[in-house]
Amino acid sequence: MDHDLNTILTSTEIAALWAQFMNDSMSICFSKYALEIILDQEIKEIYKIALGLSESHVLSIKQILTTEKFPIPIGFTEQDVNIKAPRLFLDSFFLNYMLIMSYHGMTGYAVSLQVSCRADMRRYYTDCLNETIALYNAIMDLALAKGLYTRPPYIYSPEFPELAEKTFMTGWLGKRRPLTAIEISNITFNMNKTYLSKAISMAFAQVAHDKKLRMYLQRGLELSTKVTEAFNNFFMESNLNFPISWESMVTNSTTSPFSDKLIMFHTAFLSSAAVGFYGAGQAVCMRRDLSAQYLKLIGEQLLYSEDGAELMLEKGWFEKPPMAEDRDRLME
């Protein structure tokens, strides 16, 4: 990959590459297991594309970091996946899983593009973003064709535009107004991702080897259930349909396809992403009771994420991200 030899990678570019390497090396493990299990040929084709993209990304990052004389992260390898493990998920789950992960990919690559300065890095993340957009469109087309995607609620056109009244933000007392389209959009987005977290937590709790990890995952399942119940209540109050859950797409297998380290990393990834998406939903919320619910969820999710990080440190599963120099140590 060509670049200006007088320009070294910035901290933000290194952070983007490091995070992408960790995520893509995890995705390679998940996709390889999926390809051994999936029977539906159309869904299998999606995973072949996804695996090819992840392997290409990992190779590109290795080349960039080697050129920059920066150490290659450990990430995840064939030691972290057992592709011969029994089926843990139905084919329909695998398609929904990849749909949600494409959401995360598009968000991540857009942010990586924004924090990159070098022309070669901007070109690289532009390519990654375009590839993921194409993958997302293919997944969505297939999910719709198979009837596996729940369309968000419909709303109908008012007679004319209106200005809001002073009571627009109320929510604690008295009659609450219906949800706005913006609020519906963010709740739907967060519910879809929470349903993934709920099913993943349940599946991983069945197969994880470490007792503390199983307990942590059960706690995550309880938290996800609490989140979906809260969002469902807001939708039911406004007489809106909500997405279907995915727990029934998890089998009764108790044999793990993945290492505990990978399971914990995957859980931490979804947990930290949830904090950001809850924050985005809260930022555009204009009903006080819904806004307060988001703030409560953010606090609970942050605490869950922190406890997960402590568990990773305790078990030796936490790979240290690139850090700024410790100047005090250098001057000793």
Keywords summarizing the entry:
Ferritin; 2 domains; 9 helices; 332 residues; globular; mainly alpha; single chain; DUF3231 family protein
Work out the number of β strands.
Answer: 0
Largest sheet: none
Superfamily (CATH H level) name of the largest domain: Ferritin, core subunit, four-helix bundle
Question: In what range is the share of β-strand residues?
Answer: under 5%
**Distance separating the two termini:** 39 Å
Class based on secondary structure composition and strand pairing: mainly alpha
CATH topology of the largest domain: Ferritin
Assigned CATH class of the largest domain: Mainly Alpha
Mean pLDDT: 92
What is the general shape?
Answer: globular
Residue runs with pLDDT of under 50 for 5 or more positions = none
Order of helices and strands: HHHHHHHHH
Q: Summarize the amount of helix as a percent range.
A: 55-70%
What integer value in Å does the Rg equal? 21 Å
Number of separate domains: 2
By DSSP (H or I, 4+ residues per run), the number of helices equals 9
Second rung of CATH, namely the architecture of the largest domain: Up-down Bundle
Organism: Paenibacillus mesotrionivorans
Protein name: DUF3231 family protein
Describe the structure.
With 332 residues, this protein is an all-alpha fold. It has two domains: 11-145, Up-down Bundle (Ferritin); 176-315, Ferritin, core subunit, four-helix bundle (Ferritin, Up-down Bundle). The chain contains nine helices and no strands. It has helices at residues 11-37, 41-67, 91-114, 119-145, 181-207, 211-237, 260-283, 288-315, 327-330. The longest helix has 28 residues, at 288-315. It starts with 10 loop residues before the first helix and ends with a helix. The model has no long low-confidence stretch (mean pLDDT 92).
